[in-house]
Amino acid sequence: MYRRILVPLENGPADAAILKHVTELAKLLRSQILLVHVADGWAARNMEQLNLRESQEMKEDRAYLERITQQLRQAGVEADAVLAAGDPAKEIAAAAEREKVDLIAMATHGHSLLGDVVHGTTATALRHVSRIPVLMVRVPAQEP
User: Fold this and answer.
1) Which residues contact 43 (CB under 8 A, 6 or more apart)?
2) 56-100 pLDDT, tens per residue?
3) What is the pTM of this model?
4) In a domain, 143, yes or no
5) How far apart are alpha carbons 48 and 60 in whole angstroms?
6) Cβ-Cβ contacts under 8 Å for 82 (sequence gap 6 or more)
7) Which domain range does residue 25 map to?
8) Which of 68, 76, 98, 139 is 20 to 30 A distant from 32 in Cα terms?
9) How far apart are CA 38 and CA 9, in angstroms?
């Protein structure tokens, strides 16, 4: 059913929550995982137009994706990664279409409706631009 699962990562603590769920799902279904991180800093958003080099942040993001890809492979899951640049929701939706994935699985922070309006979450935006099913896993609240 889900042969290719796209997992957007933010290079932060929320990634562990979604990776835990998706790793088990991929093993169960023998799915491939495609990790995607969207660099959305100034340099990333203007790289092509201004012919800029990768920023240090993008280099660190690429290294992070490579490390997580290796961890998944060591766990017995076929995995690959893409580093994109620009608007996260649009880039994730474009990668999902281009890579022909069957499911997008992502972590959410569980904001309220008002919080989503104020913070403008990627998950909320992605629901409106993607035709591919989206599985959202809420990140557990951090204990004080």
Assistant:
1) 52, 54, 55, 57, 58
2) 777 888 999 999 999 999 999 999 999 988 888 889 999 999 999
3) 0.82
4) no
5) 19
6) 34, 35, 36, 37, 65, 95, 99
7) 4-138
8) 139
9) 8
